[in-house]
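Example S7 (structure tokens).
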């Protein structure tokens, strides 16, 4: 392994894994192209204002809730975090959005990336300390935590890095655990009655759409869907065996398709988790694909293919 470059990304020019690494150690530190980090980091940071102003816009309402209703999560009790007041919530909101937008263009990736993580962490403590804790944000939070460890990278960075491999592996494992632990929680709190009961029926009665209401008239369909969901969630560790670029794209399409289907059925979407899922994609191929697309058109029309040895016109 050659010395890390001055960018601090821990990068090398070699793409394959180090020959001395075996087993899980090799899986965790398998080099990943830095261009993948650059593209995903832009996506992750640009999602912050979307989350703050749309997905979790309700968090701002906690600024006007009586402070005695604040029941901080365990981490909020262990750390000296401020009690949410209008000034605190407003300061965290705008500091988070402003820092994320600057970090999205690649400025001071370690400093600003760390600030984004800490501010979003506090935003989540404010969000989840009033009796409701969502499970769709842990993978995205882990992504924000590991991205600052990579340092400065560019979309067309051709180097690979074991540090980048570890960061993406951490997000990948957390995405997997989100599904696996969801199944574990179903069994822990609901037992097998979760799969044999009326869980989805109740959800569709309460939040169903025109695309899902018909399932209430099909006996056994929703119970079968519950069993299938439970089986897939328990099988989630198998996704860690996926490595080739095509298989990763197929996995992402499957996972995103599942969440789109859930949204179409009961109007529930786990957007932060979906952003974390995007880290699985081989984003390093995006700049090259865009360049080939531009090169394939001339003046908005398909480029002419010249015979071998022929000179271009003009």
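Recovered sequence:
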């Amino acid at each position: 392994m050659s010395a890390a470059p001055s960018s601090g990304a821990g990068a090398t020019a070699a793409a394959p894994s180090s020959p001395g690494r075996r087993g899980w150690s090799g899986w965790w530190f398998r080099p990943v192209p830095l261009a993948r980090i650059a593209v995903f980091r832009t996506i992750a940071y640009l999602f912050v204002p979307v989350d703050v102003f749309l997905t979790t816009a309700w968090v701002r309402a906690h600024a006007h809730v009586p402070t005695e209703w604040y029941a901080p999560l365990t981490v909020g009790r262990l750390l000296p975090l401020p009690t949410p007041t209008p000034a605190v919530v407003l300061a965290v909101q705008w500091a988070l959005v402003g820092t994320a937008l600057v970090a999205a263009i690649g400025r001071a990736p370690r400093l600003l990336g760390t600030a984004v993580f800490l501010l979003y962490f506090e935003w989540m403590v404010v969000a989840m300390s009033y009796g409701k804790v969502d499970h769709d944000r842990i993978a995205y939070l882990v992504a924000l935590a590991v991205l600052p460890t990579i340092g400065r990278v560019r979309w067309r960075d051709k180097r690979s890095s074991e540090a980048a491999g570890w960061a993406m592996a951490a997000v990948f494992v957390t995405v997997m655990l989100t599904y696996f632990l969801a199944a574990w929680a179903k069994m822990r709190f609901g037992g097998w009655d979760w799969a044999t009961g009326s869980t989805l029926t109740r959800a569709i009665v309460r939040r169903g759409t025109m695309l899902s209401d018909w399932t209430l008239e099909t006996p056994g369909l929703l119970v079968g869907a519950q069993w299938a969901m439970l089986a897939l969630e328990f099988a989630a560790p198998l996704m860690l065996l996926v490595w080739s670029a095509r298989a990763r794209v197929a996995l992402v399409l499957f996972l995103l398709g599942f969440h789109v289907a859930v949204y179409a059925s009961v109007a529930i979407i786990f957007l932060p988790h979906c952003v974390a899922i995007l880290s699985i994609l081989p984003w390093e191929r995006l700049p090259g694909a865009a360049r080939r697309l531009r090169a394939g058109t001339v003046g908005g029309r398909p480029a002419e293919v010249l015979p071998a040895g022929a000179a271009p016109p003009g």
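Notes on this example. Residues 1-10, 12-21, 302-314 have pLDDT under 50 and may be disordered.
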